[in-house]
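Below is a concrete protein record.
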Amino acid sequence: MICILLKRLFALFILGGCLVYATKVSGQELSLAEQVFQKYHELLQREDIQAVLPDVLIELKKPKNQPFLTTETINAVLDDPDLLKPLIPDVSEAFITLLKEDTDIQTLLSDPDVQTLLQDPEAIDELASLLKIESPILAPLIFDRYQTLFQREDIRELLPDVLTILKHPETQALLQPATIKLVAEDPDLLKTIVPEIEDRFITLLKEDADVKVFINDPDLQMLLQNPAEIDELARLLSVQSPLIVVSIVPASLESPGVGEQFSITVDIANAQNVAGYQVSLQFDSEALKYISWEQGTYFLGDIFTVPAIIGTDAITLASTVQTAVDAAQGTLLTITFEVVAVKASTLSLSEVILSSRIGTALFVTTEDGEIVEPATPAWDVNKDGVINILDLTLVAANFGQTGDIPADVNGDNVVNILDLTLVASHFGE
């Protein structure tokens, strides 16, 4: 215990030296985020601003949206706030309304310092940290960004315990940006600072390319300095499903007669944070003819649907919704077919893509379906597809026989009047 305490004191001493040096180099000047925070502290604490700000900050710092945040574009949006929606579709309508109606917001976004800050993702993160926004904004972002990594069994086994250790107050005192960057360069430092960390995690930091990218992510480094964000990421990891399942329902269907129509659904299960889907369904054009499709009940509200791509033996469908759905299960869509020929065939899903709210692919597995030929009824004794005098004659010819034979229509191991009557009742079918 004394050894561990000394190691931590030594780490704090090193960290203190780094921070003193950094302060001298910076001349104790306020950062851009600190300047904006001081100037607009009262406005940024308003309840209506706090209600929309976390999601707005997430959208504005996305790499795909950053190119739009030039001074010229921001000023154009101030003149016509409706311009923002085509540029950044995921920005909330509530924020657009504030831009239109609130002069304080207009003044804020007209400030050159604020416009400069919006062009710097790290400055946006710092401002969010200063505001102490209650709703975590980094955890959902990190969770979406590294879903591939989080699905790995070794990561899922180690990461919850690692997060628990990193949010301890003593550890938090050490998790300054400079320290995290040093650990990313030399993972053995982490073991010195936090001895409880498993050696397996240190090895991953050293040797695993995906984990190296993860620990070097500035957003993750910011998250690790906020216990509330760590808690939210841990929660997301604990509730994540193994894989989202997209399946054809029913999985097996007896073919109706030629010319008849039937419908199947494409269902989703184990789902979370789904904002869009793309599905291709292959079918046997010698057995089935595509008739129509309709949206299921999983997506609600404003749905944008891509025109269906219809081929002779496949159909591709895609839709997205403005607000991501967290329902675990539901029906994505319904497809109707007409029977061209009664034969066994398959319904196969391919190119299935599910999108999260921020446009990252979610992990999915698929389950196909099948069309099976109708079972031949027992009273069609000669199996020619029609019940007639030939079937009655076969039962009569075997009258009194025992055992498992076709003429034993009712399966009681004896051919008698019961079998004859059963065939007669279906005569002409």
User: Anything to note?
Assistant: The chain has four domains: 1-30+144-240, 31-135, 244-372, 377-429. The first strand starts at residue 244 and ends at 249.
